[in-house]
Write a structure and sequence with these properties.
Blueprint lengths: L3 E3 L12 H13 L14 E7 L4 E7 L2 E8 L8 E10 L4 E5 L6 E4 L24 H4 L5 E8 L8 E3 L4 E2 L3 E4 L6 E2 L6 H14 L5 E4 L8 H23 L5 E4 L4 H8 L7 E4 L2 H14 L7 E3 L4 H4 L2 H8 L3 E3 L5 E6 L4 E6 L2
Length: about 350
């Protein structure tokens, strides 16, 4: 699988990587994915390259010397952040309310996003709940509520929020107000799924729900307990923070791209993670001492322009060209118009 993620630019027209070129790059990476199919079941040398500066964070995953994934973050991300908000308006006709969380535009809280499963828990086995309540029975104007952003603000629209908090860890997602638990569908082994379910049944706090992430396959019960403990402490800290400030207030800020890469991408299959910013390098090492001390020796500092020296910048520029040659001898023509993106596939 080839993935490409891009967080919107700060609005600069001169930004080297815009939204549509990045979509085009994603298409090219997907089209070239078949090249590595022959390596399934074999160890493929894998490195994570992280370039960080005050303007943007970039993460590249290189498999067998070839760029396979690229992620770019150019603005402070708010999705996943948790706020103490205040209800400003309740609209029974829409089944929604507007919450002041301090971001300028009021956030949108839909009735079914109150006391139900989180919206952003990924590929999991989970049973959807049924609300059956009206918005007026759940919140009133002036109420203070604990909410998490599940969809970032866009244009004139404010963020979408939910009262169902989800806290992602390395192996688990903790849902302190959830009711249903599950295991990632990407863990295909029935035996492994049953093992993980049995462990979580023993260690899951009463009244809380958990989702076992794909990275948990094969990990020990002790590692799952440690990961769960980190998230429970985080949740208790959020609850303590909720008591102090007046609404609106930010209680918990989600990680930026650098730390998410260390949490989600650094696995036993990765040989090294290179970071070209000394400050971020030390912070990532501190982060891993808590979440993944077994990977500390794989995190290395790079003195220089990492993406330039490793040819990543050149590869990105190639991906952004309208004509892209494929290993089979064919090529793609990718053109963006106002209404759609056109992909022309030619056999050569």
């Amino acid at each position: 699988m080839r993935r490409l993620r891009h967080m919107r630019s700060r609005g600069s027209a001169s930004a080297p990587l815009g939204r549509e070129p990045l979509r085009r790059a994603a298409v090219v990476l997907c089209a070239a994915a078949h090249v590595t199919k022959g390596n399934i079941g074999k160890h493929v040398p894998t490195e994570i390259l992280i370039s960080s500066d005050p303007w943007e964070n970039r993460v590249a995953i290189v498999e067998d010397g070839t760029l396979s994934e690229i992620y770019v973050e150019r603005e402070e991300k708010v999705i996943g952040s948790i706020y103490k908000g205040k209800v400003q308006n309740v609209l029974p006709g829409m089944g929604a309310s507007f919450i002041d969380i301090g971001l300028g535009r009021n956030a949108f809280l839909y009735v079914d996003d109150i006391n139900r499963q989180p919206l952003n828990i990924g590929d999991v086995e989970i049973t959807q709940g049924r609300s059956g309540w009206t918005i007026g029975e759940k919140v009133n104007r002036g109420d203070e509520v604990l909410v998490q952003i599940v969809k970032e603000p866009r244009g004139l629209k404010g963020a979408r929020v939910s009262t169902n908090i989800s806290l992602p860890g390395r192996y688990l997602i903790l849902m302190p107000t959830g009711r249903y638990s599950g295991v990632s569908r990407k863990i295909e082994s029935a035996e492994e799924r049953n093992r993980l379910k049995a462990i979580m049944k023993r260690i899951r706090p009463e009244g809380m729900a958990t989702i076992v992430r794909t990275a948990a396959a094969g990990v020990s019960e002790a590692e799952l307990i440690a990961d769960l403990g980190v998230m429970i402490r985080m949740w208790h800290g959020i609850l303590e923070s909720y008591k102090r400030p007046k609404a609106p207030a930010l209680l918990h800020k989600d990680m930026n791209l650098v730390y998410k890469a260390a949490r989600d991408f650094l696995t036993p299959d990765v040989d090294a993670m290179w970071i070209d910013d000394a400050h971020e390098f030390e912070k990532v090492r501190d982060f891993l001492r808590l979440l993944g001390p077994q990977y500390l020796d794989r995190v290395k500092n790079y003195d220089g322009n990492l993406f330039h020296d490793r040819g990543i910048d050149e590869e990105i520029q190639k991906l952004l060209r309208p004509k892209v040659w494929l290993p089979s001898g064919g090529y793609l023509i990718i053109e963006h118009t106002e209404a759609l993106t056109v992909i022309d596939i030619n056999s050569g």
